[in-house]
Amino acid sequence: MAEIKVKLAEMRFSNKPDDSIVAHGLGACVALAIYDSTTYLGGLIHIVMPSSDVQSKNEYPIRFADTGIPLFLKEFMQQGGNFAACKIVISGGASMPSNSMFNIGDQNVVAVKKALSKFNLSVSSEDVGGNNGRTLNINIKKGIITSKVFGCPERVL
């Protein structure tokens, strides 16, 4: 099985049965996974910050929920994804010691949901909050999306 790693401010897609798409080390960041059960197309985006308002130029649009999610959803459709047959899952948004004063994790979760709502989409399942990092994984062949909090058993979402 090929593991496609999604790093900070990246998005990846696959419809190959032997692939899995994974985002490791989600602290305050939020990973959004989408899976279309009719085309077996899965995608994952690793959101770092809620709003692109913090940058003067739009150099890294995928980094932000407000600019990255529209690009991600557009690419999903271009690759043949169908919103009517998709599952949308989010994971991450933890309150980490380095950002607890600003609640970036909470802000990321709210911003991702807001960006999805602009496309009349909502989250099917989530594993967010708390104080621990996570890993989100999509198994393309099985269509299973899992989240694993460090030190805990994996959960199917």
Give structural notes:
Helix 1 packs across helix 2 (104-117). The protein is built from 2 helices and 10 strands, in the order βββββαβαββββ. It is α+β, with helices and mostly antiparallel strands and 157 residues long. The protein has a 5-stranded mixed β-sheet, with no helix packed on it. It has a single domain (2-156), classed as 2-Layer Sandwich (60s Ribosomal Protein L30, Chain: A), CATH 3.30.1330.
**CATH topology title:** 60s Ribosomal Protein L30, Chain: A
Radius of gyration, in Å, reads 14 Å
Q: Main beta sheet, described? A: 5 strands, mixed
The fraction of residues assigned to DSSP E strands is 35-45%
* Helix vs. strand class: alpha+beta
Number of structurally distinct domains: 1
One letter per element, helices H and strands E, the order comes to: EEEEEHEHEEEE
Q: What's the count of strands? A: 10
Shape by Cα distribution:
globular
Head-to-tail CA distance between termini = 21 Å
Tell me the name of the CATH class: Alpha Beta
Give the averaged pLDDT, no decimals. 94
Low-pLDDT residue spans: none
